[in-house]
Amino acid sequence: MELLPRSPGEFGSARYWDRFFRQRGQRPFEWYGAFPELCPVLHKYVRPRDKVLVVGCGNSELSEQMYDVGMCEDIVNIDISDAVIRQMQERSGSTRPKMSYLLMDMLQMDFPDAHFQVVLDKGTLDALLTDEEEATLAKVDRMFAEISRVLQVGGRYLCVSLAQAHVLKKAVEYFSQEGWVVRVHQVASSGDKQQFVLPVFVYVMTKFRKIPGSAPQILEICPEEQDKPMRMESAERLVAAVKDRQHYALLCNQISKTPCREQVSLDLCDKESGKPRYTLHVVDSPSVKPSRDNHFAIFIIPQGRETEWLFGTEEGRRQLATSAGFGRLVTVALHREQHYEGMAGIQRELSGKVMELAPPGLPARQQVPFLSVGGDIGVRTVRHCDSSPLSGEYVVEDVKGDGTCYFRRLIFLRNRNVVQSEARLLAPTPLPGQKKRRKDKKKPSPAEPPGAIDKSYLCCEHHKAMVAGLCLLGQGLPRGLAGELALLVVGLGGGSLPLFVHDYFSQARVAVVEIDPSMLEVATHWFGFSQGDRMQVHVSDGLDYVAKLAAEGTISQSIPAQYDAIMFDVDSKDLTVGMSCPPPAFVEKPFLQKVKTILKPEGVFVLNLVCRDARLKEAVLATLRDVFPLLYARRIEGEVNEILFCQPSPEGRRDPAELGSRARALEGALRQPGQPWDSSYVLADMLQAVTIL
C-alpha cells in the first residue's frame, strides 16, 4: 500500500516515481496490457525500420519485448525518474545495444522536430490526466504539443489507456482538431479477469498536415472482435462507443461471479452497420438445483415471436427459464433488419460471445445447448416499410406463429417490441384445376404471397374484450343483433376491430376516426379493410372530432348525434408519459364529458387503457368515475392492457355472472350459419372476469 500516491497529482512527480521504483526494486511494473495482448495492434502501426520514442517508460518490459521479437530495435525510452532510468540501462544496456534509456521530461524534450515515426505511451497519459483542473490540462496540452513536434507527418502516436471518459475526450478532441486521423482499438482480452476488469484500449493518432478551414474529422473505433474500423460521426459518439464496451466488460465480470438478481438486457450489434443484431436477456433461476448439465443454455426466440408474453416480458422469460430447467438462460431475440443463416449459423456467430455471460461455477469445457421452439428460427417476411410524419417509421410483416398459422403485423419502430395491429392469414387457396401433391415435400418459400386476411379472427385479446362489452348495451343485443347499432371507434390501426363489428352486426353503422392518413392506407392495402355504406373513416384528430359532435349535434345523416357504443383504441405518440394508450388528453375530465354527451343514456364507452404508472392510472380511474357512474374493468392476462367499460347511468349495473350469461347469448347469436367463427373466442370468458369499480 505504501507504493500508492497520497494524491493523484503525485503521478506527475519525479520524486514519487523515484521512491516508487526504489521500493519496488527490479520487478517490472505493468499498469495494464500485457505484451501478447498488445502485440496484434502494435504490429499494425510499428514497422521494423521505424524510430520509436517511448514516453514515461518506467520499468515496463514492453520495449524489451518489442526489441526481442524483432518488431523494432531503434527505440528511445524516456522517463522523469532517475532511479528507473539507471535500473533499465543496467538491465538492457548490454543485451539490447540499439535501444537507449534517457532521463528526460516529456513536457520539454531535447529531440529535434520530426525525429520519430512512432511515439508510444503506455499508461503515461492516464497517470498525468488524473483530473480536469486547469493546471493538469495545461500539462497535457504541453505533452501533446511536444509529441506532435517530434513526430513526422504520417507518424503515429500510440497511447495504451483504460480510456476514462475525460482522458479519451481530451485526446480525441485535441488531435482531431489538429487534423489528425483518430482511431481507437479495443485490445483483445487474454481471458484473465483477475488482474484487471476494465478493457484496455490503444488510441492511434496519425499525424497529417493541418488543412486550413473546416476539414472533416476522421474518427474510428475497432472493437476487439474485428479488424475493420467503424466510422464515428463525432467525438461524443466515439466516447460513448468506448463507454458501452467498458460497461459490457463490467457486466460480464459481475455476472460471472454472482447470480443476477434482476434480468440483464443488452444488444449485440452488426459489425458492418453498427445496428442491433441480437437482443439478449440474461435470466437466472435460483429455484433450479444445479447439476453438471443444467448450468447454462441459450434460447433462440423464433423471428416475429419476440413480442409474445413468454418471450417479451420479464415474468414470461422467468417462467421460460424455470420450465427449461437451467440455472441461467440467455434468451436471444433476432432483429427484423438482419439476415440469419439458420440455427447453425446463429450458433457459430454467438457461441464465443455468449460464453462471456456464463454463470459462476460453469464446469470447464461444458457444452452449452442452443434451444428454440421447434428447433428453428421462425419465419419473418417484411412486406412493407414506410414512414409517417405522425407515426414515424413502421413496417408491415408476416410472421409464422405457433404451429402452421401465419400472422400479419403492423409495428411502429419507435416502439418495436409492441405489436400495433395483427391479423391472421388464411391459407392460400389453390387455383382452379390445381391439385395438392401429397408427395411434394418442398417447403413454401417465405416470399410466397400469403392468403387473404381472416376477418373472423381477433388476434388481440383486448379487442375481444371490447367487442364483448357490447353485451352491456341496454336493449339486449341477441334480440337486436340485426337492429341498428351506431358505433364510433377512435383509432383505426389495421382495422380489425371495426371490421369485425361491421361483419358480425349486420345493421351496425361504424364510424372510425383516425388521425394518420398513412394508417388508412396501411389498413386498406395490407389488412383487408374497406369502407362502404355502413363503414366510414374520418381522417381527423379524435379530440377535435368528438368535440365538434358534442358542440353541433348531428353533422350529417351519416353521422349520428349519439352513439350506442364508443370505443377508444388509440396509442400515444409521446413515449415519455407512463401511459401509452390513450394519450392523456383523451382521459381529461372536460373531454370525457363531451364523450358522455354523444353517448346514448343506455350506451357504453369502452376504453383500452395501457398505463404502467400506478399513480397516473389511479388518477385516470378517479376521473372516469367522476364522469361515468358505472365503471367495469377487465384486466388482460399477461398484458398491461386493461379494458374499461363506462356507462352514463348506474341503473344498468349487472354482476359478472349476469354479464357472462348475456355474453354467451350474444356469442350464440353471432355464430351464424355460414359465418366463420374462431372457436377460441369465448365472449363469456371476457366478461365473467370483470371488476366493478
From TrEMBL:
Residues 50-172 form the Methyltransferase domain. Residues 425-450 are annotated as: Disordered. GO terms for cellular component: cytoplasm. The lineage of its organism: Eukaryota, Metazoa, Chordata, Craniata, Vertebrata. PANTHER family: EEF1A LYSINE AND N-TERMINAL METHYLTRANSFERASE, SAM-DEPENDENT METHYLTRANSFERASE SUPERFAMILY PROTEIN. Signal peptide: none annotated. GO terms for molecular function: methyltransferase activity. This is eEF1A lysine and N-terminal methyltransferase. One of its GO terms (biological process) is methylation. The keyword Transferase applies. Belongs to the methyltransferase superfamily. Residues 434-444 have a biased composition (Basic residues). Gene3D superfamilies: Vaccinia Virus protein VP39.
